[in-house]
Amino acid sequence: MIKEYKHKKVLIIGLARTGLAAARLLGRMGARATVTDMKKESDLAEFTDRLPESVEKILGGHDGVTIGDYDLAVISPGVPWDASLPASIRGAGINLVSEIELAFTLLSAPVIAITGTNGKTTTTTLIGLMLEEAGNKTYVGGNIGAPLSDAVDMENDWVVSEVSSFQLEGIKSFRPRIGLILNVTPDHLDRHKTMEAYTALKARLFENQREGDTLILNAEDSAARSLLPDTSVRILRFGVSRHGEDGAWVEDGKAMASIGPLKVALFEVKDLQIPGVHNLENALAASLAAFTAGVNPGQIKKVIRAFRGLPHRMEMVDEVDGVTFLNDSKGTNIDATIKSLSGYNKNVVIIAGGSSKGAGFAPLARAIGAHAKGAVLIGETAPAIVKALGEFAPKKRAQDMDDAVTSARAMCAQGDFVLLSPACASFDMFESYEDRGEKFKEAVARLKGGQLNHAS
């Protein structure tokens, strides 16, 4: 993999936030960068306005790209690996890498990388906060929002990176000092096609690890548990129960960690402010990683007590007439929603549905039947979820978020909950999962303000 970019000709496929960060980094390195995107320049003004003047632009399509002109290509995560241009580049023998690979070749600080189907952002955020609490200069980024390329010129003790399967498609030398695989359940099958392919991409997180590195795996997730490196990497496991190996678990209300002969209490479970077994798992994983990186239990406990969670992840929105509304719009796949439902006992109405990721809805239907008292379905997958639910009742299809919120409220009694946890992507009705969550919060506010009917 190239580590000296001066005068190299580099093609960046896909602009947006990641492509912009890569272009600016390559500009600082003296490379001759070209960015190409299917969108027109008028649709990319917020990014093109911030490109270095030296960067050439081929926008509105790739017709102006001459593949043989380039030494290297950098692909943005939103561009499918098997799309025409990336496939042609690989076919021509040109290295095609993701932005995290580009940045990694230039980073001096050790990397903690977190992947998994669910829980990545919460775990990444917690690790960053714990390292900062211990006095480390820490950059938190990757798939979480701040591209790794922006960390290259900074002086950091640690770089903490959330990593997606899309980003792992394009690694060559990316090697985390500490790697975490939180879970692997069906997601993005519309892009990766099979669970085998998706799981293999997650496993790439540790393919370059070697002696002295640490891999942290979820002992209670069958797919993650089965992933094993071929090297002498130290393996730690986490789970609510202890699984006989070094790692983290819960014992007598405390999160415990054991690495070799050392056994310590990391935090008390009652101090964890974010609800759900899945968030307990996230906290165990984050605490184990931070402890491995040198953070002491007192510093870990302080962060656990203070952390109130992230927007759109089991976020308490408001209470209306004794009914509590929760925003879990980040629940964009079936397993995430199943975990969010698991803490309820027929006292929750779920709002679910959206655009399909290619997974079947039978497991979701079973979870709704076991835990929910009602279901409101939205988006293009609503008919499929209704069909999967069979005789479960009450259930209703809603036309928009206002209709969903009022319909869900009508199914509730005082003390019940309404949970937006769609189990699907958002792009059929909304710009993003964040937009979907904000629309939900706005609808709840209108309901509380009397602008919506309380029944439908």
From TrEMBL:
SUPFAM superfamilies: MurCD N-terminal domain, MurD-like peptide ligases, catalytic domain, MurD-like peptide ligases, peptide-binding domain. Coiled coil: none annotated. Pathway: Cell wall biogenesis; peptidoglycan biosynthesis. GO terms for cellular component: cytoplasm. Residues 312-424 form the Mur ligase C-terminal domain. Residues 114-290 form the Mur ligase central domain. Its main location: cytoplasm. GO terms for biological process: cell division; peptidoglycan biosynthetic process; regulation of cell shape. It is found in: Cytoplasm. It holds the Pfam family Mur_ligase_M. PROSITE patterns: FOLYLPOLYGLU_SYNT_1 (PS01011). Its EC number is 6.3.2.9. InterPro entries: Folylpolyglutamate_synth_CS (IPR018109), Mur-like_cat_sf (IPR036565), Mur_ligase_C (IPR004101), Mur_ligase_C_dom_sf (IPR036615), Mur_ligase_cen (IPR013221), MurD (IPR005762). Keywords: ATP-binding, Cell cycle, Cell division, Cytoplasm, Ligase, Nucleotide-binding. One of its GO terms (molecular function) is UDP-N-acetylmuramoylalanine-D-glutamate ligase activity. It is an enzyme of class 6 (ligase). PANTHER family: UDP-N-ACETYLMURAMOYLALANINE--D-GLUTAMATE LIGASE (PTHR43692:SF1). This is UDP-N-acetylmuramoylalanine--D-glutamate ligase.
